[in-house]
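Researcher: Re-running this chain for the archive, since the previous output was lost when a drive failed. Same request as before.
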Amino acid sequence: MVITDMGMENCTNMTNRHRKYYLENKDHLKKQSKIHYEKNRDKILERAKKHREVKRKLINEVCLSYGCKNPECKWEGEFHSAQLEFHHFDPKKKQFQMGRGADYGYKSVANEMNKCVVLCACCHALYHVGLVDLDETMLCSVNDDLQILNEGDHNDE
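Model: Regenerated structure tokens:
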């Protein structure tokens, strides 16, 4: 679909009309929103809880799929997701802790995850005292649905 300048102008006008409507009816809209929330509070909270649980499960699956990316990790056997942590390769680019990832949208979680290396808790601690080296080839690579993109790069334990 090609968007012409006229189409963009109509879009801008519609946005302006919506903005104007909102500003003119702000108090009424807020009141209606509050009434809706009060009526449906339990459903809304339950739905949000389910969404967070699904997202948490996907995040844990990514962790388990990658396993500890430290090639010198001494752990033998399978990992539990509680043993694995996301380490931000460049802390300056960190937007949020992955432990809070279930509170964010899938795209935000994917973007944050792609800045991280999965390490077991022991290797993560060893990294922070300078005993483990990491490089960018160890970074996670997932799409916006939290599906791993580079299947060949993760551990198949």
